[in-house]
Amino acid sequence: xxxxxDNVCELxxxxxxxxxxxxxxxxxxxxxxxxxxxxxxxSSPIAGSRQIDAAGRFLMPGLIDCHIHLLNFWTxxxxxxxxxxxxxxxxxxxxAFLAAGVTTVKSVCDSEDDILRVRARLxxxxxAGPRLLATGAxxxxxxxxxxxxxxxxxPWLRSRAAIETxxxxxxxxxxxxxxxxxxxxxxxxHQGGCKHGSPYFFKAESWGINVQILKLxxxxxxxxIDEAHRHGLKATVHTVDADAAIExxxxxxxxxxxxxxxxxxxxxxxxxxxxxxxxxxxxxxxLIKLEEKMAEVRYANLKxxxxxxxxxxxxxxxxxxxxxxxxDTIEEAERxxxxxxxxxxxxRMATKDAAEHLGLEDLGVVAPGKLADLLLxxxxxxxxxxxxxxxxxxxxxxxxxVNNSHRA
Length: 408
Ligand SMILES: [Zn+2]
Hints:
The chain is of the alpha/beta class. The protein folds into 2 domains: 4-61 and 365-407, Urease, subunit C, domain 1; 63-358, Metal-dependent hydrolases (TIM Barrel), CATH 3.20.20.140. 30% of the residues lie in helices and 23% in strands. It has 11 helices and 20 strands. It has helices at residues 79-99, 112-123, 155-161, 168-180, 218-230, 242-250, 269-277, 295-307, 327-338, 343-349, 352-358, and strands at residues 9-18, 29-34, 37-42, 48-53, 58-61, 63-68, 102-107, 131-134, 138-140, 162-164, 186-189, 201-204, 209-212, 235-238, 255-257, 280-282, 311-312, 374-377, 391-396, 399-403. The strands form 4 sheets. Strands 1, 2, 3, 4, 5, 18, 19 and 20 form an 8-stranded mixed β-sheet that branches. Helix 8 links the parallel strand 16 (280-282) and strand 17. Helix 4 runs parallel beside helix 5 and helix 6 runs parallel beside helix 7 (269-277). The longest helix has 21 residues, at 79-99. The chain binds zinc ion. The site of zinc ion has 4 residues, from loops.
């Protein structure tokens, strides 16, 4: 029988302590990589043209950030300014992700065709950066978030990044359009008051925004999610309160972006629905920067959801003007620790569980056959999450893309 030693690998990382996406493997192991994929994970030597001695350092899957906005929605106001952002500023953001060990990101609302073009350029390696998944534009009720909040001064982008609809049929048409462009998921914003209920105001004091908004009609929400599922796409829904979260999950949502941020969960009903749907909770704790007084509520809700066994996928809501791309992903992990989540579970949220949320079976795990997106770190982030900052090396698709080892 042919052993894995018979295959000569392009790259071998020897003598690593390995967190495989779920748990630590025993002792020190060697990882053989060929054709951008992991070929073997064994304790015996592996033949390979390039050998790296990890010397007991910590090896884990690359970090995955499930909620970002990549393009600059403040400065990109027409074709020319969007092109300028993409050519001059975007490469810095992409590089910042890799420098922090983030090898996969998901854009959950950006200018539809622009983000899909960026995705194609990253996939063909014309641009260097993390793997990019994208939902394209996001669905929302007419005159709702983000159309009349963050995008109110930017009509050009509003028509490209937001799909404002109160018609189930037009919503289904738009899902079909997005599916035709092979988006990676469908994003819905379900935040606001009901037409006949109490009014809801979207407030962002630092940007001078205080505007009344409506939630999507339930029939529209249901139509979007149903049509997404017909096309094999997951539908992930922006919510901020329990009522919206319950409506989204009852309509079949596969994920909650932000989750319940505005008040403590009063019971376990949201948790039960998350478990029923096998849905993910994407906490975006980095938004606490905007509203420090909400930290306690958001941490407690995350802890309740995580302890109940719901899949939590790490996501930051990084966007231009507020965030430090990449650096925020580490901050999100550290804030998860402040919520009382153990370090090993946080690593899982940022690797295996994030990959499952994105529907990427090939990512987030150190095992034969998986894509070779790997980090090599000093210290022990499975015990002390801050050690994610002690990054030695980033391997993406089997190639070393960041190497800080000379500093060690
Ligand atoms: Zn967002």
